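can u do me a favor
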């Protein structure tokens, strides 16, 4: 009988040591295979078959967008994820084309939402479906832009990456000050009293989304932003604690939406307030990324171990053939459940914070999965690619 935790220790963070762990290599997979698969995944996701594989679509000679192939729109989430993938893969041409579309088509340039990115756009009409933002897009845009500045150097105009990152950061936390109060219901993306990111910066949406909490990013902003660095460090400290509080102590599951006190949040579009589903999957990546880059923080290992133990037990019920992806926070399965490779990817990243005896299972199981194709390839595919870069040690701070 195996023990629930192993005796291995989690190394100090890669930002300090300069050494990024390759979890695939650690479980015995050949490095040449890892690199070849990584490059093949990028090609499929960006240049594969138009109707079944790719999500990246060039537009003219100097722009491109990422398509949500189920909802047939362009989302700030997917655009910013793709930009992060490009900077990690050293794909400057694709990065610049995505950024020009995001900046030109999806960022608000006037009014109460100035500086914010509309979360959904129509690629055919080149216009916004909804001018309100989803803050995880801004978070990935900012960090990808900083990385681009440090990896490739700043250009001119909208390609002065560092200037653009600081412009977004300013609006994220000075919006109410800039507007002279709450105008059209628009608030700051970070609640100043709570020092926590909001689900949507609208006055009536005073709650959070645990998967938007990215302490690893905030720690970098605290070093690199041209101002408000102490504020960003405070947000990072708060988010570390919030992630731990959001994850159930026995299952490791967080709900999709939670109060500022990390209690399940009811929303009009989410009748299951205790639901662990698509958004929630990313909490594992956020925890693992922070642990990998900056070292394991208080409570991280306990929560990562609980999460992986829960899903390992789920996998055993399926004879090791994957596991389902939607549950109540206490572990009760939801109806209409399915097996999502995006979750497999996220759980593999949680291994960076884990000492669970069976954590190799998650790395090996993820390795066996294929990049999704067809109608539902967008979200699962992007999470798969992000997760792969993390687990292979190729998701780095630049």
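np, heres the sequence
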């Amino acid at each position: 009988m195996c023990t629930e935790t192993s005796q291995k220790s989690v190394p100090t963070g890669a930002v300090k040591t300069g050494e990024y762990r390759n979890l695939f290599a650690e479980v015995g997979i050949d490095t040449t295979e890892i690199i070849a698969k990584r490059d093949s995944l990028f090609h499929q996701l960006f240049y594969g078959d138009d109707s079944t594989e790719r999500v990246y679509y060039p537009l003219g000679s100097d722009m491109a967008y990422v398509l949500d192939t189920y909802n047939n729109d362009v989302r700030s989430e997917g655009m910013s994820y793709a930009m992060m993938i490009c900077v990690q893969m050293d794909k400057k041409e694709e990065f610049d084309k995505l950024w020009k579309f995001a900046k030109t088509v999806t960022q608000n340039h006037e009014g109460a939402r100035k500086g914010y990115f509309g979360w959904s756009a129509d690629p055919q009409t080149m216009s916004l479906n909804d001018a309100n933002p989803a803050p995880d897009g801004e978070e990935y845009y900012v960090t990808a832009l900083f990385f681009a500045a440090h990896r490739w150097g700043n250009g001119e105009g909208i390609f002065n990456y560092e200037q653009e990152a600081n412009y977004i950061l300013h609006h994220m936390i000075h919006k109410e000050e800039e507007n002279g109060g709450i105008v059209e219901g628009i608030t700051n993306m970070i609640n100043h009293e709570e020092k926590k990111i909001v689900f949507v910066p609208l006055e009536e949406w005073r709650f959070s989304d645990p998967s938007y909490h990215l302490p690893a990013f905030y720690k970098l902003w605290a070093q690199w932003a041209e101002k408000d660095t102490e504020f960003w460090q405070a947000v990072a400290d708060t988010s570390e604690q919030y992630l731990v509080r959001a994850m159930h102590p026995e299952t490791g599951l967080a709900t999709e939406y939670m109060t500022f006190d990390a209690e399940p949040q009811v929303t009009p579009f989410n009748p299951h307030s205790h639901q662990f589903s698509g958004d929630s999957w990313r909490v594992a990546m956020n925890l693992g990324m922070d642990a990998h880059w900056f070292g394991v923080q208080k409570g991280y290992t306990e929560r990562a171990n609980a999460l992986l133990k829960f899903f390992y037990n789920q996998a055993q019920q399926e004879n090791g053939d994957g596991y389902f992806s939607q549950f109540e926070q206490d572990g009760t399965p939801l109806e209409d459940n399915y097996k999502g490779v995006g979750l497999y990817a996220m759980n593999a990243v949680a291994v960076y914070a884990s000492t669970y005896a069976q954590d190799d299972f998650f790395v090996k199981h993820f390795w066996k999965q294929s990049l999704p194709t067809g109608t539902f390839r967008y979200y699962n595919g992007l999470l798969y690619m992000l997760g792969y870069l993390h687990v292979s040690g190729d998701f780095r701070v630049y």
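The CA atoms of residues 135 and 189 lie 7 Å apart. hope that helps!!
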